Amino acid sequence: MDYETEAIRPRQVSTRSLDAFDRKILGVLVKDARLPYAEIGNLVGLSPPAVHDRVKKLREAGIIRGVHASVDGPAVGKPLLAYVHVDAEGWGKSQRMMRLQAFPEVEEMHSVAGDTCVVLKVRTADTHALEHLLLQIYILPGVKGTKSYIVLSTYLERPVQAEVTGTWPSVPMPDD
Amino acid sequence: MDYETEAIRPRQVSTRSLDAFDRKILGVLVKDARLPYAEIGNLVGLSPPAVHDRVKKLREAGIIRGVHASVDGPAVGKPLLAYVHVDAEGWGKSQRMMRLQAFPEVEEMHSVAGDTCVVLKVRTADTHALEHLLLQIYILPGVKGTKSYIVLSTYLERPVQAEVTGTWPSVPMPDD
DNA sequence: GGAAAGCACAGACTTTTGTTCTGCCAATAG
DNA sequence: CTATTGGCAGAACAAAAGTCTGTGCTTTCC
Asked: Where would I find the HTH asnC-type domain in this sequence (chains A, B) (predicted)?
């Protein structure tokens, strides 16, 4: 199996500027990608072929990366969610760290700016499995330590939303 | 709009124990939920109606939560990904914090065990928008402070995987 | 300002897929 | 040993996806 050793980058910036219809379609598909084109058309105000055309172009432009089923973590035997901050000396992005992607428990891997190097999102069967995964991290060269944040309750977990907040609510400045 | 004020919980533990076919089907649907049932059937070794039946049951059992399009963050105008740790006095879960879910920039919200109370995953247009969002967090009652981890590069970002690591690689114990 | 070209949409059609039904087989319980 | 339940394959039907053509619009060039 091949591992992604390069960061996920925007494939092509795609001069295509999203208009209001595209935004609406994306908003619908993010919520439920199984709706028929006819129903999407009703929601956004277009005919089914028009929706089809736009979705096809959105896919070709890489704006829609794919369609995935969202499965319940506990139901598939992974009730324990955690974020693991990895501190490494030198530079965190070693090739060997990419091999962690082979574990289905690892869902995200980012290099970050802050008081740590890499943030991992991991979902394991139990604390024992998490320990095993931490062991796999510790044997990587350059890893100085990890800090784990065990999720107690998840209040929100959703995919990338198509909408963007245009005007933020004004906040009264503190009186100092 | 209503906000989820309760944590996402497993709807029903569903006595349904996943067999090998279910695991395979889930694995396929997580990768690409647009494959026809006939093709899934070829991959896992079942007929299209059998796959249909199982997927239907997996949906009814809540094991498949839904099907969502995955859109590219930068392409929809949100190239800046960050994790925000929120420190609050008392108890972080105030009703008003749930209102942050109204912002499409907020993708995840967890209460965690560790040296912080709440972890947010936010995706914004730029640092300016992130600052606006942080302002919205700071005006919440009880919020003492935040710590932001700006994502520099994303090496892996994928939905919940259906697979579970059965036997972990053995790691030689350090010689102390 | 006018004409031509490109784009996007709606309607009708074809093809593919989803969905349902029926019968059969195996496993289990009585 | 028999009856019953659950699940799967094959066939038939319904529905959606995908394609094609024409039309109206905007844009752009002359």
From this structure: 18-79
Residues of chain B with CATH 1.10.10.10: 20-60
CATH number, domain A20-60: 1.10.10.10
Give the separation between CA A132 and CA A127, rounded to whole angstroms.
9
Query: Which segments of B84-174 does DSSP mark as H helices, in order?
Result: 95-98, 127-138
Beta-carbon contacts of A22 under 8 Å, excluding residues fewer than 6 positions away, are A54, A58, A63
Q: Which of B62, B107, B113 sits opposite A150 (nearest CB)?
A: B113
All residues at 6 or more sequence positions from B56 whose CB lies less than 8 Å from its CB, including other chains = none
Exposure of B38 in the CB half-sphere (CA atoms within 13 A): 0
Domain A74-150, what fold?
Alpha-Beta Plaits (3.30.70)
Neighbours of A51 (CB within 10 A): 26
> Sign of torsion, CA A75 A81 A86 A92?
positive
Crossing angle between the packed helical segments A37-44 and A20-31, to the nearest 10 degrees: 130
Give the sign of the dihedral formed by CA A38, CA A44, CA A49, CA A55: negative
At A32-64, the pLDDT tens digits run 999 999 999 999 999 999 999 999 999 999 999
Say if the Cβ atoms of A71 and B62 lie within 8 Å.
Answer: no
Amino acid identity, residue A156?
L
Residues of chain B with pLDDT under 70: 1-5, 9-16, 92-93, 176
Which of A93, A104, A152 lies at the smallest CB-CB distance from B165? Answer: A104
> In A36-132, at which residue ranges do the beta strands (DSSP E only) sit?
64-71, 80-88, 106-113, 118-124
Q: Distance between CA atoms of B160 and A3, rounded to whole angstroms?
A: 18
The tens digit of pLDDT for each residue in B116-126 reads: 999 999 999 99
- Residue spans in chain A of domains classed CATH 3.30.70.920: 74-150
Strand D bases within 7 angstroms of protein beta carbons? 7-11, 15-20
Please calculate the CA angle A66-B65-B37 and round it to the nearest 5 degrees: 60
